[in-house]
Each structure stands twice: as structure tokens, then as C-alpha cells.
Design a protein that fits this description.
Number of strands: 5
Strand order of the largest sheet: 2-3-1-4-5
Strand content: 5-15%
Shape: globular
Helix content: 55-70%
Structural class: alpha/beta
Number of helices: 10
């Protein structure tokens, strides 16, 4: 019981590019007092602190090699452990990216408190990215963004099924206006006894 009390609330926010993850995570940070993190931010922070691990990662990047997946997971686990000490929950944006990441996280840290999936069509994601000015008129760039949106939809299926089986998944209709999406998220989180 005491151990369970100390476990921080960890919510994974999944969604394709342009689905609204950043905005909704900011709102969750305000509403629920969560710390919003991304693996990219954790990596930047590690590179800037000049730790031994940071220097190693810098060397890997300098050589143009792919960062080891286990190191990124270690960064996330360290951030979760830090939240335990601070008594603060977190919302992790864009994680997990594949089923293996989900299973490795669970093996080391247990299940997340909840998983929120911002569901919208590849066309909607692409349209939002275009309206934010992230798309130039280059047809190569447009094709790349469309492929990223479609790729998320197909790549995420195994993760979605994994969290559905565990009854942790809350699928949110992200086709709606941002305030309507946030209302759905609040309802899902509050009704699931996560908060």
C-alpha cells in the first residue's frame, strides 16, 4: 500500500504529428499539475549537463549514429524516478513509439496510470501541419509529412491493441476543436480514477 502511494501518476500521450499532443499536454500540466516531458527534451537536457552519459550520447550523435533505444528509455526512467521524489506526476508526449518500448518500460517501471490516444485522420494531421506553416510548397516535403501521418496510424496499431487489452487506453476524438478535445481528456482521466 505504501509503495503504491509513492508511485507517480504517469500518463502517456500518443498521437501522430499534428494531432495536438503539445497543446493538450500543456493544458494537462496546468489542470492536473503534471510535468510535461518528451524524450527529445530529456535528451537535450542530458546533452547539456555534460554528464558521462551525455558525453557518450554526444559522441554517438557526432559520429552520425542512431542513439541507442535503451539509453532513451533510461532517461525516461530517471525522469519518472525524479518525479517520485518530488511527488509529482507526469505526462509523457510521444511515448511509446513501438510495442517494444512499451514492454521495456513496463518491465522496469510498471504500467502507466493511463494512455491517452489523440485520434484523427492522416488528412487532418497533415492539414494542421500545413496551417501551422510547417509545410513548404515543396512536394517532397508534403509527401514526407503525409507519410509520417499515415505511418503513425499504421505503426501505432500494436501499441493501441496492447493498451486496450490492459484497459489503460483512452481514445480521444482529436478531430474536434482543442477545448472539446481537452474536455474529453479531462473526462477520461477523472473517470478512470487516475486523478
Amino acid at each position: 500500500f505504501c509503495k503504491e502511494q509513492k508511485k507517480p501518476k504517469v500518463i502517456f500521450m500518443m498521437g501522430g504529428p499534428g494531432s495536438g499532443k503539445a497543446l493538450q499536454c500543456e493544458r494537462m500540466e496546468e489542470r492536473f499539475g503534471l510535468r510535461h516531458i518528451t524524450l527529445g527534451e530529456l535528451l537535450c537536457s542530458e546533452l547539456q549537463c555534460h554528464s558521462e552519459r551525455g558525453r557518450h550520447l554526444w559522441d554517438v550523435l557526432e559520429r552520425g549514429e542512431k542513439l541507442p533505444e535503451e539509453t532513451l528509455l533510461e532517461l525516461l526512467i530517471d525522469a519518472v524516478a525524479s518525479s517520485v521524489q518530488q511527488g509529482r506526476g507526469m505526462v509523457v508526449s510521444g511515448f511509446p513509439r513501438d510495442l517494444r518500448q512499451a514492454e521495456e518500460y513496463e518491465a522496469k517501471m510498471g504500467e502507466p496510470s493511463a494512455v491517452v490516444l489523440l485520434s484523427c485522420s492522416p488528412e487532418t494531421m497533415y492539414s494542421r501541419l500545413q496551417s501551422r506553416g510547417r509545410c513548404s510548397s515543396s512536394s517532397d516535403r508534403e509527401n514526407a509529412l503525409q507519410k509520417r501521418a499515415q505511418s503513425f496510424c499504421s505503426d501505432a496499431q500494436a501499441i493501441i491493441a496492447h493498451y486496450e487489452r490492459k484497459t489503460l487506453l483512452h481514445t480521444i476524438d482529436a478531430e474536434q476543436l482543442p477545448h472539446e478535445v481537452f474536455a474529453q481528456i479531462c473526462h477520461a482521466i477523472e473517470s478512470s480514477n487516475t486523478y
